[in-house]
Amino acid sequence: MLSRTTYAILVVAILSLWAGTAQANSMRCGVHIVSSGGRTGPTMYEVLKKCGEPAERAGLVWIYDRRGRISRLSFDSRGILVNIQRG
What we know:
Elements: H1 4-24, E1 26-29, E2 32-35, H2 44-51, E3 56-58, E4 61-66, E5 69-75, E6 81-86
Antiparallel strand pairs: 1-2, 3-4, 4-5, 5-6
């Protein structure tokens, strides 16, 4: 059986990992936040409308450079945002 302290540490660790994952799959565009995943992520059109033209397009991968912070957005064949990578 786990002690209360061990249990609390375990819960905090799991929540931290979960929060980090959620943050990595979203990007702020001015007052908007674009998030990937879910059943129906935003389309290419919706991302363009919220974030503007990307710095570079390579097929289904768009690259945004926001003040030196690089974000690589990947879309599936239907044009739905499926992943956001930083760096």
